[in-house]
Amino acid sequence: MDVCAPDRIFLCLLRPDKSIHNIQTSRQQLKGVLDVGHALHAMSALALTSSARRTAARCSASARHLYTAAKSTPRCANPKRNYSETSGGSKQQTPSGERDRSAVGVFTPTAAAIFVATGVGLFFYFRHEKEKLHEQRQKELIDKDVGRPNVGGPFSLTTQDGKTFTDKDLLGRWSLIYFGFTNCPDICPEELDKMSAAVTELDKAYGPIVQPIFVSVDPARDTVPQVARYVSEFHPRLVGLTGEYAAVRAACKAYRVYFSTPRDAQPGDDYLVDHSIYFYLMDPHGRFVEAFGKASPMEDVVERVKKEVGVWEEQTGKRV
């Protein structure tokens, strides 16, 4: 009887296919076995053989599963790294040792924030500059369409040296003209200081092409000697003008200047004169260019005069 004896069980485990055949044979031959001990021995062998078959089946299934999984798993070309590399080859180590997913090359969140802030700043800057340019063009169009303000005209007054000075003496040079009075406590000296400082700066740039002029609106008290003493405290080229009430009034009217000096005022009277607080820029043709008020700083005056001199030079080829 070809049954796995106890001493052959190990061989049966190694050869499960042979054991299956032996099992079938054993079932047929077992019917004729009379010896109880031998039958028990055969049944024991059969049980062991069945267990071996199940074990072998499980081993075979496990082997097939491992082979299939290994075959389907892609192999990594490079080993796993605990850092991220930039385009320049530098390594950015992260605290967790994993790749920094928030960084793409050198474009980090901080760089992105700086980029956005810069873009917003440039946007508002260029928009502001565009609005300023638009306003400037609109102003130029208005000047061309409407024309120059009707400021300036004929006048005849007397200088601090006792000489006659008329509107014709303004021709051939740039002029800054201020209307005030010598007894003015604060505003007139401040404006004349500002005008004198602007002329000093322009003299450094162009030479003496801008003539500063002071016109008194208080003819009763501002005599020629009084005007001479007063203008000597400011720019050395400052021309002081005064005259009779009618002549002063005509000059103020031509230049659209308001003043409140009484017609019948006397030199010894104590009064203040209310008047317009502007000084005017006139071009070498004696035409009005700009008026500068108390709020205009000296730098703005210089800048505007330089601009007008530049335009004049482009159009005529000379500065005056």
From TrEMBL:
Transmembrane residue ranges: 106-126
GO biological process, one term: intracellular copper ion homeostasis
MF annotations from Gene Ontology: copper chaperone activity; copper ion binding
Keyword Membrane included in the entry's annotation: yes
Listed PROSITE patterns: THIOREDOXIN_2 (PS51352)
Domain Thioredoxin: 146-310
Location of the region described as Disordered in the Swiss-Prot/TrEMBL record: 74-102
GO CC terms of this entry: mitochondrial inner membrane
Biased composition (Polar residues): 84-96
SUPFAM superfamilies: Thioredoxin-like
Compartment(s) of residence: Mitochondrion inner membrane
Top-level taxonomic group: Eukaryota
Primary location recorded for the protein, binned into one broad class: mitochondrion
Pfam families: SCO1-SenC
Keyword Disulfide bond: yes
Disulfide bonds: 184-188
InterPro entries, sorted: SCO1/SenC, Synth_of_cyt-c-oxidase_Sco1/2, Thioredoxin-like_sf, Thioredoxin_domain
Keywords linked to the UniProt accession: Copper, Disulfide bond, Membrane, Metal-binding, Mitochondrion, Mitochondrion inner membrane, Transmembrane, Transmembrane helix
Binding site for Cu cation: 184, 188, 275
Family to which this protein belongs: Belongs to the SCO1/2 family.
Record-linked PANTHER family: AT19154P, ELECTRON TRANSPORT PROTIN SCO1/SENC FAMILY MEMBER
Identification of the protein by name: Protein SCO1, mitochondrial
